[in-house]
Amino acid sequence: MRWLFSSRMRVRWSGPEKLLALDELIDRCEPSQIKYMMQVIEPQFQRDFISLLPKELALYVLSFLEPRDLLRAAQTCRYWRVLAEDNLLWREKCREEGIEEPLNLRKRRLLSPGFMYSPWKFAFMRQHKIDMNWRSGELKAPKPLSRRHPGPADTPQHSTMH
User: Which residues form the F-box domain (predicted)?
Assistant: First the structure.
């Protein structure tokens, strides 16, 4: 096959001629050779199409995912994580669920160097957690807002009975 790619035998084939040559080649192959070709070719089709799109278009595609699937997509790779943390994307998810403005919209927490956590995502996750706790019926003991040292009014009075 080296003759096919050598510089002195270089042939300028048109698109249809290349397809015809491939058809002929495949027809002459054994099943094991065709299986090998498939193993070589198949990874070429398993491309990350989201990363090939402009950011705005990628976010538009991700906007069709349910929040649960969006969280899973964020685990795919770093770029998908950045996309899945988009504040406007989560704002839309919040509006779909009837969640109003998050409490700390102005404060964006830094997850790692150069990576901001979406306040809208935080609001969505907080509301989801509240809803799940409400549905499951599992009540947890309330946490005190502040710790106070017991004073004289908090200590039980011992009375002596005669």
Answer: 47-93
Pull the structure tokens for residue 29.
């192959």
Residue with tokens 């090998």: 36
Q: 120 near 94, Cβ under 8 Å? A: yes
Q: Within the chain, which residues score under 50 in pLDDT?
A: none
Per the structure, how many domains does the chain have? 2
**Four-point Cα dihedral 79, 85, 88, 92, nearest 10:** 120
Model-level pTM?
Answer: 0.51
| Cα four-point dihedral sign 64, 66, 71, 75 | negative
How is residue 152 annotated by DSSP?
Answer: G
Q: How far apart are the first and last CA of the chain?
A: 113
Cβ count near 33 (within 10 Å): 12
Domain contains 109: yes
The label of the residue with tokens 């058809």 reads 23
Paired strand residues for 95: none
